[in-house]
Structure formats: structure tokens, C-alpha cells
Amino acid sequence: MLITNTVHATQIPALARRSLVPALQRQGRLRTVVARAMSGPVQMPEAYPHGLQTLSPGNTIVEALRLIGPGFRLVPLDGNSPYVKPKAALYDFNGKERRWDVVESHASVGVVLYHRDLDAFVIVRQFRPAVYASLIGEAEVAGRPAPQFKDAFTYELCAGLIDKSKSNVEICQEEIFEECGFQVPLEAIREVGVGISSAGTQGAPHIMYYAEVDSSMAVEGAGGGLVGHGECIEVLALPLEASQDFVLDGSLPKSPGLMFGLTWAYFNKLNGSLGPRPAAAAKAAAAARSNPLLTEELVLKPVLPA
């Protein structure tokens, strides 16, 4: 039996194990990958509440923290950003000219992902400099020490900017592949609704989509974001049954889009409008078969009167 410290290979999530083990056995590096796959849950168990499981071997919050720091500073924007453009909006209201500072930005897409084999939602976690900058400001005002980088990792849906000559669904497909490592057919991605991102400053539309994945769609080596672009994204499986406790846990930094998307999908999955939950049904059937009180002989049946 292969053991790395006290971690068994069988403790790696099944999805990660199926895609990694064959290739890595040929390269003689399975021991190293087992340790890396479990580095997050083993070294930072507090980072996996509500039954969260990492699907990102070697790309967990532990690895991300090793890539960040120690420097962090805020400087004025030089005006050449391809992503945001600060401006002042001047408009007439009640006979007077008013001013409102705005930030021009791209529209975006977000995808609620449900994993059929795991009966879980697939979400992402990554370091957000804007969140860390806000935490620094709060700490300075309160006279507290600077926050830790781990406090600025937020839970989000798989998402991306609409900044290329592709359809929204094609952008969703690309982001699912780059961030989460699944290849999803375009026709399997459906639109849910449209919201507004940060109406007070940005006002750009955010279009939400829904898609389902399974282990057969996992692509070896894909997911985790683009490290060359400063991304180190951990992919997480959140059990459907625990999702609402997760959403309402105020100690966990998360996006409003994630809160709405998971809540919408949770109730629509329970009422069947988003299709069955194969893993949950199989688990219930197995439990019923193992329960001696639910055998054919003991089930109550209606009997017609003589």
C-alpha cells in the first residue's frame, strides 16, 4: 500500500485519482503527487469547511500561498488598464449638475456547475488582491495588524470577462476548461439570468449560466487557471446537501453571484426541475438494500377487500 506520511492514495478525490494515477505511475512520481494532492486538506484543514473537497491536486490554497508575497502595495492607476477605466459621470438632476464616479468595465459570465457523480457543486477559490486591499484599509482604520494573505481567498463561481470575439456560451465553455478542467459541450450550457455587477460603481451586466459535469468530462492537466496571468485557482466540490449552510456562513468570503447561483440551483435540483441527482439516488438505493427493514417481505402493501 502506498503511503505518504499518513495520507493514503485512496484519500485523493476519485475524480483527481482517476485522471492522474495512470500517467504518473508511468513517470514514477505518484508519491510526490499524492502528497501535493492532499497538501491543502492536511496542512490547512480549517480551509475545507462544510464538507468541501479539493479537486485540484498540487494547486490548493497551500500552493497558492507559497506563490504570494511578501510584497503588496497600492499605487494610482495609470489609465492604461485593459480591464477598468475610472471616470466621472456628470448628469442633470432636479435642475443641477450632479457627479457620480464610475468604473467602466467588461460584462461577465458566471457558471453554476453541478457534478453528477459527486452530487456536489463545483466552485473555485482564489486570491483576490482587491479583497486584500479592502482588508488592509479596514485594519489600518481599526489599528489592527495587517491581515494575512489567506484571508483574501474568496469562494466564487467559475466565471470570466466578456472581452473576446466569442459568444457568451463559448466563453463559459473556455472558462470551465481553464478554471475547473472539464470539457463541456456548448449545448449543455444554459442561461439562467442576468444581474448587474456592482451597480454603484461598475454597472456592467453579469450573465449567469448552468451546466452539469461528470468524471468523464475531466481533462488531465486542465484547470487551475493561467499561472502565467497570475492565477492559481483551486477547484472545490461542495456537497449539495451542505450548500445552503455554506452560503449562509458569514465567516467565509464569497461572491453574491455564488450565493444566488448555489441557492437557485439547490432548490431547483431538489424539486427536480434541473434533472435527477444520480449519485444521491444510487446512494439512497444502496442504503435501502442494506436495510433489513426494507426487504420485500416486510414492506407494507395495500390489500383489496374480499
TrEMBL record:
<keyword id="KW-0460">Magnesium</keyword>
<protein>
    <recommendedName>
        <fullName>Uridine diphosphate glucose pyrophosphatase NUDT14</fullName>
        <ecNumber>3.6.1.45</ecNumber>
    </recommendedName>
</protein>
<comment type="function">
    <text>Hydrolyzes UDP-glucose to glucose 1-phosphate and UMP and ADP-ribose to ribose 5-phosphate and AMP. The physiological substrate is probably UDP-glucose. Poor activity on other substrates such as ADP-glucose, CDP-glucose, GDP-glucose and GDP-mannose.</text>
</comment>
<dbReference type="GO" id="GO:0008768">
    <property type="term" value="F:UDP-sugar diphosphatase activity"/>
</dbReference>
<dbReference type="GO" id="GO:0006753">
    <property type="term" value="P:nucleoside phosphate metabolic process"/>
</dbReference>
<comment type="subunit">
    <text>Homodimer.</text>
</comment>
<keyword id="KW-0963">Cytoplasm</keyword>
<dbReference type="GO" id="GO:0019693">
    <property type="term" value="P:ribose phosphate metabolic process"/>
</dbReference>
<dbReference type="InterPro" id="IPR004385">
    <property type="entry name" value="NDP_pyrophosphatase"/>
</dbReference>
<keyword id="KW-0378">Hydrolase</keyword>
<dbReference type="GO" id="GO:0046872">
    <property type="term" value="F:metal ion binding"/>
</dbReference>
<dbReference type="GO" id="GO:0005737">
    <property type="term" value="C:cytoplasm"/>
</dbReference>
<dbReference type="InterPro" id="IPR015797">
    <property type="entry name" value="NUDIX_hydrolase-like_dom_sf"/>
</dbReference>
